[in-house]
């Protein structure tokens, strides 16, 4: 086993621990030789590493600062009851604030989108500890194992990273925002219906051609440059940028349902210029000055703190780097009650174009360009609604009437919101200045 794999785990420990003591490291690895590589990798942290070769030993562990599972779940990955038992034991084995890392290679499972189901299991699980606290695993990221991607062309080898946390008691139907996205707007069926109407590999207005037009507004993209794609969805835009311009893209999204599709297709296409993470743009700690470009298509309306997002984008861009965002925004007309309900149901946090420009300027960006693209949005909505109406028989051969009705009414409602200047489609482009 390459030492780069346990060292990737150590990298996350350093990112997430925030100076916390990591002296007690417990590793569960059925392959003892692989387990010992974690001992070597943790030597710079002066950690006391104990290696176990079976999940049966998990119940004996307590108060671990770091708990790592290395391909230890293969026998239980399809058994919901055993996974629940595992999560209870893993949570109880960790100290509050402790880090839990699960490395699992899923290339040989029958369901190539298994990562979505596992992410959901891990993310929403809660259990009471001995003190009565409602504890669970707070998601930091699900990333691909870089050694597997580049050496083996295996894009389905994952590293799940969590921190044990005490959560407030909750009776909500959706436990986390990721859970909300995957159970409402981005169900598997919903994603497939969106893709049918937007075009293969895309779930954003206008599909491939519209996305390419927008990407070209960056200017001269060069092979080997790097891009962060926030809200990458099912990955069409990331693969488009790699194919068209040779740019290396790190795509992130909080919807595990969407990224499971992107990862499955990436595994089929074997394009190592593209990688994905299931994570929150406000949580993932990107390296500073690391990207030539940051791109986001119609995603940031889901993010509550625009100022924090822009600050993080600014830090991760290289000097001279550019950010380009299209986003749903609010217009300047008096908002109807129906529009307010729509915004609340989607958990949108809408800004108008003036507010976006002011936040960008406050952050320190220069060469700021903003544009109200709502007229083009209206054209696209009319085109797509017409496409659905003219090809209704084909649509109904794949989906139910409720999906058809939902799309038609949704597009009609958006056209109504546009007419009242409630709903805008906004464009933003800016640059990080060079140091003086």
From TrEMBL:
It catalyses: N-methylethanolamine phosphate + S-adenosyl-L-methionine = N,N-dimethylethanolamine phosphate + S-adenosyl-L-homocysteine + H(+); N,N-dimethylethanolamine phosphate + S-adenosyl-L-methionine = phosphocholine + S-adenosyl-L-homocysteine + H(+). Residues 45-168 form the Phosphoethanolamine N-methyltransferase 2 N-terminal domain. Its EC number is 2.1.1.103. Signal peptide: none annotated. The keyword Signal does not apply. The keyword Cytoplasm does not apply. Pathway: Lipid metabolism; Phospholipid metabolism; phosphatidylcholine biosynthesis. This is phosphoethanolamine N-methyltransferase. It comes from Caenorhabditis latens. The lineage of its organism: Eukaryota, Metazoa, Ecdysozoa, Nematoda, Chromadorea.
């Amino acid at each position: 086993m390459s030492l780069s794999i346990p060292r990737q785990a150590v990298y996350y420990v350093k990112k997430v621990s925030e100076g916390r003591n990591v002296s007690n490291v417990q590793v569960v690895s059925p392959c003892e030789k692989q387990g010992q590589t974690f001992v070597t990798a943790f030597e710079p942290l002066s950690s006391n590493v104990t290696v176990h070769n079976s999940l049966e030993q998990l119940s004996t562990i307590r108060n671990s600062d770091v708990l790592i599972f290395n391909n230890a779940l293969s026998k239980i990955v399809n058994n919901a009851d055993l996974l629940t038992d595992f999560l209870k034991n893993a949570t109880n084995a960790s100290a509050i604030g402790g880090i839990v890392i699960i490395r699992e290679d899923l290339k040989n499972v029958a369901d190539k989108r298994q990562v979505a189901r596992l992410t959901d299991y891990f993310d929403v699980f809660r259990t009471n500890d001995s003190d009565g606290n409602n504890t669970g695993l707070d998601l930091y990221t699900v990333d691909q194992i870089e050694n597997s991607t580049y050496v083996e062309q295996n894009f389905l080898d994952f590293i799940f990273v969590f921190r044990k946390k005490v959560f407030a008691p909750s009776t909500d139907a959706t436990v986390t925002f990721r859970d909300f996205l995957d159970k409402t707007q981005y169900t598997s069926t919903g994603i497939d219906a969106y893709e049918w109407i937007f075009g293969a590999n895309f779930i954003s207005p206008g599909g491939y051609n519209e996305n390419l037009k927008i990407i070209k507004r960056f200017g001269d993209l060069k092979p080997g440059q790097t891009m962060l794609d926030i809200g990458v969805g099912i990955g069409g835009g990331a693969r488009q940028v790699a194919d068209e311009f040779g740019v290396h893209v790190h795509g992130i999204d909080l919807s595990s349902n969407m990224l499971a599709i992107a990862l499955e297709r990436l595994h089929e296409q074997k394009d190592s210029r593209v990688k994905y993470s299931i994570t929150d743009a406000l949580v993932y700690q990107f390296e500073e000055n690391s990207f030539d470009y940051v791109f986001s298509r119609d995603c940031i309306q889901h993010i509550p703190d625009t100022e924090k997002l822009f600050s993080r984008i600014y830090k991760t861009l290289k000097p001279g780097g550019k950010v380009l965002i299209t986003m749903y925004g609010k217009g300047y007309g008096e908002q109807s009650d129906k529009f307010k309900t729509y915004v609340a149901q989607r958990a949108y946090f809408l800004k108008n174009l003036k507010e976006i420009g002011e936040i960008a300027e406050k952050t320190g960006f220069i060469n700021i360009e903003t544009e109200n693209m709502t007229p083009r949005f209206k054209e696209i909505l009319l085109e797509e609604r017409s496409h659905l109406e003219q090809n209704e028989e084909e649509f109904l051969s794949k989906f139910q009437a409720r999906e058809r009705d939902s799309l038609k009414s949704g597009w009609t409602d958006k056209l109504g919101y546009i007419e009242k200047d409630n709903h805008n489609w906004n464009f933003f482009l800016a640059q990080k200045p060079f140091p003086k």
